[in-house]
Design brief:
Helix content: under 10%
Number of helices: 1
Largest sheet: 8 strands, mixed
Radius of gyration: 15 Å
Structural class: mainly beta
Order of helices and strands: EHEEEEEEEEE
Strand order of the largest sheet: 3-2-7-8-1-10-5-4
Distance between the termini: 25 Å
Length: about 140
């Protein structure tokens, strides 16, 4: 699967500005999950997530942030492999970073550079460094 560059959800925008400028604390999870979508999730957390056919969200771990041209960037440190599809998942066009294996809060979302149709017996994988979060 190709690179994905992600944007903040509305929930995350509000949580960050409330914490930074108003002292409103919030608790973050210690584990993050990658979700696959067949339609674009929005900042307001809409969009069609893949379901059925053996699909489950996968855990992701990010690198320490680095500053590049005044932008803070993190990326996934290891390959992320989804289970073998036991039924067609459809055309995967977007991903999201969520706070739970099911449900939870959408934190970041974005389009993949090369959408891919996942059919029965296919596997989908993001190589280390392909999922980037860029804070400018």
């Amino acid at each position: 699967m190709a690179d994905a560059l992600l944007s903040k959800s509305n929930w995350w925008k509000l949580a960050c500005i409330n914490a930074a400028l108003r002292g409103v604390a919030f608790t973050l999870p210690t584990t993050w999950f990658i979700a696959l979508y067949t339609s674009a999730p929005t900042d307001g957390d809409t969009g069609a997530e893949v379901s059925g056919g053996g699909y489950t969200r996968r855990v992701v771990t990010f690198s320490d942030p680095v500053l590049v041209d005044r932008r803070a960037i993190v990326q996934n440190v290891a390959d992320i492999s989804f289970p073998t599809a036991s039924a067609d998942w459809g055309l995967v066009t977007h991903i999201g970073i969520r706070t739970a294996a099911t449900g939870g809060i959408l934190i970041y979302h974005g389009a993949v550079k090369t959408p891919r149709t996942v059919q029965t017996n296919d596997t989908l994988r993001f190589l280390a460094g392909q999922i980037k979060v860029d804070e400018g």
